[in-house]
């Protein structure tokens, strides 16, 4: 079974994440895409929403797509947060799905050579990031100028996020008053 892994803080999950996953299913002939929310990443500030809130938003976003699953292992207490350690728990050789921005700094990742020994890489274009060199598969994808930080800023200003996140996620953010929702 061909499995793609899409990791991230998903703070919040948005339509570009879902479009990447759908594109990966078809372009890479995957059987499923696993959404893997990060715990405490070593490379950036922690998420604003709690792990439970991010998981709830992911569940809402992927509901109805049986080829999308959620894996919470990186949220477990004591997990290292390193991709190489996470991959050790996956059977076979999964495909790690990366945006061009992350791929550009991939060689700075903890034990990146071991990641290459355990997984294949597939890279999606992202505005402002070039895909250069390496052995990763390029996934044809029309870049979407959409980011979780921009969505959080819109929410904090009281602006609508319709069309940027699934409706159920927008409702959840409003109900829980996340990201400074007025």
What does this structure look like?
This protein is α/β, with parallel strands linked by helices. It is built from seven helices and six strands, in the order E-H-E-H-E-H-E-H-H-E-E-H-H. Helix 2 runs antiparallel to helix 7.
User: Helix-strand pattern, N to C?
Assistant: EHEHEHEHHEEHH
Count of helical segments?
A: 7
Query: Percentage of helical residues?
Result: 25-40%
Task: Outline the biggest β-sheet.
Answer: 6 strands, parallel
Q: Shape, please?
A: globular
| DSSP strand tally | 6
The Rg value, from CA coordinates, equals 16 Å
How many angstroms separate the termini?
Answer: 45 Å
The fraction of residues in strands falls at 15-25%
Mean pLDDT: 91
- Poorly predicted spans: none
Strands in their spatial order, largest beta sheet: 3-2-1-4-5-6
Which structural category do the helix and sheet elements fall into? alpha/beta
Chain-wise SSE layout:
Blueprint: E1 3-8, H1 15-27, E2 32-37, H2 51-62, E3 68-70, H3 83-87, E4 95-99, H4 100-104, H5 112-118, E5 120-124, E6 137-139, H6 148-156, H7 167-176
Parallel strand pairs: 1-2, 1-4, 2-3, 4-5, 5-6
Helix pairs in contact: 2-7
Descriptive key words:
about 180 residues; alpha/beta; six-stranded parallel beta sheet
Précis, in short:
The chain has 182 residues and is of the alpha/beta class.
């Amino acid at each position: 079974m061909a499995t793609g892994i899409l990791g991230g803080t998903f703070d919040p999950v948005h339509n570009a994440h879902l479009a990447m996953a759908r594109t990966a299913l078809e372009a890479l002939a995957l059987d499923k895409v696993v959404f893997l929310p990060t715990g405490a990443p070593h490379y950036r500030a922690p998420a604003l929403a709690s792990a439970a809130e991010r998981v709830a938003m992911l569940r809402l976003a992927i509901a109805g797509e049986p080829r999308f699953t959620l894996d919470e292992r990186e949220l477990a207490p004591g997990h290292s947060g390193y991709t190489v350690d996470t991959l050790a728990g996956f059977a076979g050789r999964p495909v790690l799905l990366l945006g061009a921005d992350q791929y550009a700094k991939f060689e700075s990742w903890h034990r990146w050579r071991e990641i290459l020994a355990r997984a294949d890489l597939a890279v999606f274009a992202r505005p402002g990031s070039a895909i250069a060199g390496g052995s990763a598969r390029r996934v044809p994808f029309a870049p979407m100028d959409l980011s979780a930080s921009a969505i959080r800023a819109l929410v904090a200003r009281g602006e609508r996020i319709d069309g940027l996140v699934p409706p159920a996620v927008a409702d959840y953010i409003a109900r829980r008053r996340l990201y400074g929702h007025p």
